[in-house]
Amino acid sequence: RTQLVTSADASLTGQFKYIADNPDGEGNQDVFCPDVTLAPSGDFALITGNEIAKMSFDIGINKLNSTTAAIYIDGRPA
Questions:
Q1: What 8-state DSSP symbol labels residue 68?
Q2: Measured between alpha carbons, how far is 37 from 59 in angstroms, rounded to an integer?
Q3: What are the tens digits of pLDDT across the range 9-27?
Q4: Is 72 helix (H, G, I), strand (E, B) or coil?
Q5: Residue 36 has pLDDT above 90, yes or no
Q6: pTM of the prediction?
Q7: Per-residue DSSP letters for 2-56?
Q8: 47-62: per-residue pLDDT in tens?
Q9: CB neighbour burial string for 41-53, b if at least 16 within 10 angstroms, e if fewer
Q10: Strand 12-18, strand 31-40: pairing
C-alpha cells in the first residue's frame, strides 16, 4: 500500500481515481483524473461528541498534456 505523509507543502499533485460502488440501482461510473492538485479545505477533527473523524479536500483537475484528457469516466475521455 502507498502511504500519504504530510509535509510543509500546502498541496500535493498526483493522480485521482474514484471507484464507484452504489449500494442500490445501476449506474456506477468510475472516474480517473491523470493530474490533480489535492489540498486540505478545512479542519481535521478526529472525534467530537458523537461524530466520527471528518476530512475535506479541494481537488483541482489539471491538464496533464495535449494528448491526455483531464477526466476519464469508465475509461472514456469526458
A1: S
A2: 6
A3: 678 899 999 999 888 877 8
A4: strand
A5: yes
A6: 0.70
A7: ------S-S-EEEEEEE----SSSS----EEEEEEEEEE-S--BS-BTTB--B--
A8: 667 777 777 889 999 9
A9: eeeeeeeeeeeee
A10: antiparallel
Q: Which residue has the cell 489535492?
A: 38
Return the number of other C-beta atoms located less than 10 Å from residue 72's C-beta.
16
Q: Where do we find the cell 475521455?
A: 77
Our measurement of the distance from residue 73's CA atom to the centroid of its chain's CA atoms, rounded to an integer in Å, reads 14
Residue written as grid cell 472514456: 76
Instruction: Give the Cβ contact number of residue 57 at 10 Å.
Output: 13
Give the separation between CA 78 and CA 74, rounded to whole angstroms: 9
User: Residue length, the chain?
Assistant: 78
